[in-house]
Amino acid sequence: MAIADITIIPIGNKSPSVSQYVADLQRVLEKRAQEGLITYELTPMSTLIEGELTDLFKVIQELHESVFSEEIKRVATNIRIDERRDRNDHSMQNKLASVKKHLSK
């Protein structure tokens, strides 16, 4: 199981706001989540996606491609991937639970 932190930036849009593009990306993610490929979480600055690494790469490519349109000719995608192969319980929820456990000490 891997976790990807992804930020997709449309370049050259008419407005400094990108919330409509983010909403469109969330629709793609929801579809893939319903198929059981991934889980995801929207944050104020990026989106976290969890799943098998091969599935993450496919979904990330789909997200990157989905932003291109007649008005958007350039897209910058930043990706950070965290994958552990020494444990089977590596997940976003378990990572948070581990930190919270240390905070309670």
Automatic annotation (TrEMBL):
The lineage of its organism: Bacteria, Bacillati, Bacillota, Bacilli, Bacillales. This is Thiamine-binding protein domain-containing protein. InterPro entries: MTH1187/YkoF-like, Thiamine_BP, UPF0045_domain. PANTHER family: UPF0045 PROTEIN ECM15. Residues 4-100 form the Thiamine-binding protein domain. One of its GO terms (cellular component) is cytosol. Belongs to the UPF0045 family. Coiled coil: none annotated. Residues 86-105 are annotated as: Disordered. Transmembrane segments: none annotated.
